[in-house]
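Record type: monomer structure entry
Structure origin: computed from sequence
Chain ID: A
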Amino acid sequence: MQKRNFSKSVMWATVKLEGSVADKCKAIKAAGFAGIEPNSHMNRNEVIDAMKANGLSASSVCSTAPGGLANPDAGIRQKAIESVIVALEDAKAYGADDVLVVPGRVDENTAYDECWKRSVDSVKKMLPTAKKLKVNICIENVWNNFLLSPMEAAKYVDQFKSPYVKFYFDIGNVVNYGWPEQWIRILGNRIGCVHIKEFHRQAAENKGRWEGFNVPLTEGTIHWAKVMEELRKNYQGGWLVSEQGAPKTPEELKDISDRFDKINVL
């Protein structure tokens, strides 16, 4: 039986080529990608025109309100909520189903239980808009000391009892404290979208954890064959989105796309 391949997208914020939105979309298409993950609050008409001119689709939208949904300051939380609502409206305009949302950050000023409660309250306030627009709020696992296990992440999503709250699974981000294939199996159909990103455990251990990301796609310690097997079994979406590196030239962008292809057929 032929394996199901996923459509390739790239996170807009990672593409560091100079030029207009149209110029970047042209380079992204030439590199072999089928889609982009725009940032929220971009010029919608400019993005739509550039995608249309280059035969690209929007896989998802990245909200530009990281962490604010659990901020101790109610005013900051409200601004973050309003910002994510704009991202949901962006996604609707682009024809995308998913918005990447960072729920909050646990630190010396924000306790774990407080982050949970505040972020949940914020998501509940955004849910009517998500339901109306039929766009998913996708909670991403970032290095924010929060939702540190797949069991906990599943519980977080399930509490909303809504098809419009899902999980945005970043493969590279969990390697520091877990195995992505296990997360995928446990999260199952809760996964709304997926970030492709490499990580090298030994580099992180020897040089500092951020160095774990400083490795080309396919050259880290992620077992991509296992990851792809679990994605094909459990992930119902059609997009995989590259958040790999910061390509500054068409050649660097093409290299990421080519490495992506090697993963897609495993």
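Annotation 1: The radius of gyration is 18 Å.
Annotation 2: The chain has a mean pLDDT of 96.
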